[in-house]
Amino acid sequence: MQSKFEQLKTEALLAIKSVADKMQLEDLENKILGRKNGELTNLMKGLKDLTDDARKVVGALANEVKKEIELAMENKKNELLMLDWSKAIEKERLDITQPALPQTESGTFHPNTIIQKDLEDFFTSMGFAVLDGPELESDFFNFSAVNVPENHPARDMQDTFYIKNHPGLVMRTHTSSMQVRAMLKQGAPLRAIVPGKCYRNESTDPRHEHTFYQLEGFVIDENITLANMKGVLEAVAKHLYGEETQVRLRPKFYPFVEPGVNGEVTCFICKGKGCRVCKNTGWLEIFGAGMIHPNVLKEGKVDTTKYQGFAFGFGLTRLVMLKYGIEDIRHLQSGDLKFLKQF
Ligand code: PHE
User: Fold this and answer.
1) For the chain, what percentages of helix, strand and coil (3-state, to nearest 5) are there?
2) Residue 55: inside a domain
3) Do 20 and 134 share a structural domain?
4) Residues 239-268 as b or e (16 or more Cβ within 10 Å = b)
């Protein structure tokens, strides 16, 4: 009987050695140590037929054999595990000397973004801060605070989207909604621009869109005059369209400025001679501006005995359309890649 145990041990250890994976090891474990029909289990069942003395000796051997087989199996299990790990690590290895894949696609900036960034750079070089504000705005900041009281006919010029069950909220119709917010937050003196999205209730056509971009600007300080305003706007016009560009200001009513002007620049296409784009006038209308109305400064808690200011609003979308010769404003919101990839 002893030799049977010895033989089983030799065979088992050999078999364990040649196992290649976890499944094989489990099968082998079952075959040798299985409770029901394992080879060692069966052999051990024979112990009960031995004499007491013999059982002691053979029993001790049997236990040792069992332990040795179990240990060998445990070691094999660990060995297989290590193998798995090193395979996984090998897979994850990063060859940093491998040449990069060729770049096939890269994105482009939206034309609005290109002009916006360009103007942000230009204005920051003149000491302006760039501010951001909410597009879903209160009726107060969009209208009342900038001198457009409720029921004033000026509200008709800027119809917008109202929010159901929230009578105090509107989609902002212009970036002028940030004027009083900025004054209340930062106080005077103040020098800032606000580029951003605006909304109006328009029936859309090639020149009108419900969503468009403006770029607002305002300066509040001591001794600010209309001349300062013209100087800044001329600098912007020359930056956009070249040194020879001129600015023309004509009176226009905006409730939040007094005096208010409509700003035009020499048509950069025909250089003022008259063409289709400027409708033969030689001028392109690109902004509204004026000296900030005292009512607006007061809403912003600015001391009107000490400070004055000017404000201007560029149609950023209009600048983009002029610059790139885009004939239909609706392209800009279309998300059409064929359109967007040209920039
Ligand atoms: N907010 C005006 C508009 O949307 C433009 C403007 C801004 C005019 C600042 C004057 C001063 O039409």
Assistant:
1) 45, 20, 35
2) yes
3) no
4) bbbeeebebbbeeeebbbbeebbbbbbbbb
**Which amino acids bring their CB within 6 angstroms of ligand 1?**
174, 176, 216, 254, 257, 260, 288-290, 311-313
From ligand 1's centre to the CA of 321, what distance in Å?
A: 19
Q: Coil, helix or strand for 108?
A: coil
Same domain, yes or no, for 160 and 236? Answer: yes
Query: How distant, in Å, are the alpha carbons of 12, 197, 247 from that of 156?
Result: 95, 20, 29
pLDDT level of residue 277 (50, 70, 90 thresholds):
confident
Longest dimension (CA), the chain: 126
Cα(302) to centroid(ligand 1), Å = 20
Q: Which of 174, 179, 314 to mutate to test the pocket of ligand 1 (most atoms within 8 A of CB)?
A: 174
For residue 219, tell me if it sits in a domain: yes
Per-residue model confidence (pLDDT) at position 134? 97
> Mean pLDDT score of the chain, rounded to an integer?
93
Last residue of one domain, picked from the residues 28, 58, 92: 92
Phi first, then psi, for residue 257 (nearest 5°) are -135, 155
The answer to whether the CB of 216 falls within 8 A of the CB of 315 is no
Return d(Cα 266, Cα 284) in angstroms, integer: 6
Helix extents (H) in 192-331: 226-241, 294-299, 316-324
- Rounded to whole angstroms, the Cα distance separating 273 from 275 reads 7
Q: How many domains does the chain have?
A: 2
Instruction: Give percent above pLDDT 70 in the chain.
Output: 100
Domain range spanning residue 60? Answer: 2-92
Neighbours of 32 (CB within 10 A): 23
Distance CA 152, CA 256 (A): 13
Supply the DSSP string of 263-276, one letter for each residue.
EEEE-TTTTTS--T
164 and 259 housed in the same domain: yes
| 105 inside domain | no
Q: Where a domain ends, among 32, 59, 92?
A: 92
CA distance 96 to 297: 61
- Percent of the chain at pLDDT > 90 equals 71
Can you give the pLDDT at residue 36? 86
